[in-house]
Amino acid sequence: MIPESLRHELQQRVAQAVTPREAAVDVLKELQAHYGWLSDEAVVEAAAILGLTPLQVEELATFYEMIYRRPVGRTVVHVCDSISCWAMGGETLLSQLEQRLGIMAGGTTADGALTLLPCSCLGNCGDGPALMVSEQLHGPVTLDSALKILGRF
Amino acid sequence: MPKLIIDNIAVEVPDGTSVLEAALSVGITIPHFCWHPALGKAGACRVCAVKILEGPVKGIQMSCMLPAQDGMVVSTGDGEAVALRKSVIEWLMINHPHDCPVCDEGGECQLQDFTIAGGHGIRRYDGKKRTHVNQYLGELIEHEMNRCIQCYRCARFYQEYAGGTDFGVLGRADMVYFGRQCDGPLESPFSGNLVDICPTGVFTDRTARFRARYWDYDMAPSLCPHCSLGCNTIPAARYRELLKVMARRNDAVNGWFICDRGRFGNAAVNAPRRPRQPLVDRQPVGWDQALDTLLGRLSEFLELHGPGSLAIVGSPRMSLEGNIMAARLRDLLGAGTICYFGSSKQSEPALEAANSLTPDTAASQADVRSADLIAIVGCDLLEQAPMMALAVRQAWRNGARIYAVDCDQTTSLYAGEVAPALSALPFSEAKQPVIIYGTDHKQPDSSDDAVRSGTKLAFILNGPNDFGCALLAREQGAVPLADALAGGKIKGLLSFEADLTTELPDAVRVLAACDWQPTQLMQRAEVALPATAWIEMEGTFVNNEGRAQRFRQVMPPGLPIRGLGPDGHPPREFRKTAPGSDILPGWRLIADIIERLEGERVDVPLSGRWQKLQGINAEDAGESVL
Lengths: 153, 626
Hints:
The structure holds two protein chains of two kinds. In chain A, 46% of the residues lie in helices and 12% in strands. Chain A has seven helices and four strands. In chain A, strand 3 (131-133) and strand 4 form a beta hairpin. In chain A, helix 2 (24-35) packs antiparallel against helix 3 (40-50) and helix 3 (40-50) crosses helix 4 (54-63). Chain B has four domains: 3-92, Ubiquitin-like (UB roll), CATH 3.10.20.740; 123-210, Alpha-Beta Plaits (2-Layer Sandwich), CATH 3.30.70; 285-346 and 466-531 and 579-624, Rossmann fold; 362-454. Chain B has 17 helices and 28 strands. In chain B, the strands form seven sheets. In chain B, strands 15-14-25-24-23-16-17 form a seven-stranded mixed beta sheet. A five-stranded mixed beta sheet of chain B has the order 2-1-5-3-4, with helices on both faces. A five-stranded parallel beta sheet of chain B has the order 20-19-18-21-22. The longest helix of chain B has 19 residues, at 287-305. The radius of gyration of chain B is 27 Å and the shape is globular. At the A-B interface, helix 4 of A face strand 7 of B.
């Protein structure tokens, strides 16, 4: 259950949008910030706030890769796997991060601190290989600089 | 009107036609998955590649996405195009399981056909395949996502065409999933069309699962008997058992689709309780004995009570042929009463339709789909005629204004406004207005006549042959059965596929009843005569717009093999025909009774004013009786 104040604020935001769908991603992100991830409960709540069916919310939620439909760690690391970053060694970066963090891509460290996710283009092609940590873009990174950013060096 | 050349054939097509459709119009089929005539293009599958040799664009193009333009020279068989299509099919097949032998779609699978046609016969990919977890989508549709080739037809049909909100596309990229948010029955009353529209076996008919292959089916063009719209179907049967029903294209009527009631609501055909044996006073007898007893009792009855106390009862469930023969039997016996409807509540809408419609004003489902203003009067469309609601949705999607008069219009299919009266609607601004009257609407008053001029009309009726029965009722001076019984004169009934709407007084004898369903009248009947269901015979229904359509025999009548336990096993004796196969269509049975009375053979029910319906081809659009 989300607090009544948050529900009220989101309902107002939806009311101000031209169509409810326009506000959908905002609502999903707020609910995700509240729960830490977009839980099944949150999908149903979002649907009620937006006047959509749970399926219609799920279609959006599963399309955007920064909406997490499974529990994630406190910090999420997105490593770009698109072509420019790949050409600059993104693939190696991801596998080295997997090794050093001791998790597979998609996994979360045992202490629940970090989740490592490959993602498609971050729009940082000029500075590949790129990664994004807590909505902060970094690039070009090496294994060392990446671990420094993550505080794991 | 662009003119182009496709494979050396000159083609002229209307503006906006795609190259793929232009090719189809001259009989050249270009492989396609995502494109569907009713849904349009999506550009999702890439398998309709052709090479444009000359014209405004050149080289390999997707023919479904490319509008035909003047001066184009198109080659569908160019080596480069063929090679690309072959590769595309190989890509589509990479994740597709090799489960054709255990897949219900096998034999009726577009993917199978185009894979073979594209020349991809040997799999080179030996890596792991993408797999999915299937969902439970209810008792009617089986889900097998691993077979999916991401053509998006299902989601486009379900959401865009049919207005469903509980099924769609989840995920992205190489993990696209077509399903619901969680397990559960599909909510749309049109969900069964996913089975027809899926080019492979992601959605298959669960009710016919693992029962037969396409080449084993008994199939024929048929009609749906569940409401008055007369949607076209292809029932598939095997071993005298109806397995499933598929939609059949008729652009003037149902288009490409049917509703779930028509597809999944046919269990009565295979029901073990179906009458299959003539009975006299509930005792099994042979056909000759049953008919002799009937004639004997009938002549005693007529002698005792006079023909005025006999009612012949036809029915909108019965074919036009049967109802015409019922009228002839009435004439022959001089019976005082003939009934075609159970009550005036059923007969009035049908008579109003028969009296109001003309060839210029009758609105088909196609007219409704292309209307720009629709008034729905006193009608719960989704309940009374689901496909008409789907037709209204198509008009609404194209910008038509929808108004509801004297009824509630809360549906996810279209957004309508509630209007106080027809006279308040802006008919004069509309180019193609249609009024749809439901069975509950009030009689139109004189102000309605004004708006009805220049407007097409559709009447939603009750049964598959309501309109035909209304024409006969008008001609024969028929009265509804309930009214006839209330008059108190009727002492005996001969009933043909009729249903009771009121209590039948104990004093009224049911001399004989003929039906393929175990109705109340069949149970009361002194002589009970089993008849064939519509899919076991050829016949004619006249739909709500006065369109006579032919249905052909799909399967021979008889006891289905399925469901026969050791107890129900037919006699172990050598015979050339299947048990229960000696039943006749209702009209043929009445003709037999007439022959026994008159001594002359009766073979042609559609004679006189009905003669023009003799030549209807079941695969054509039908023939107007207006």
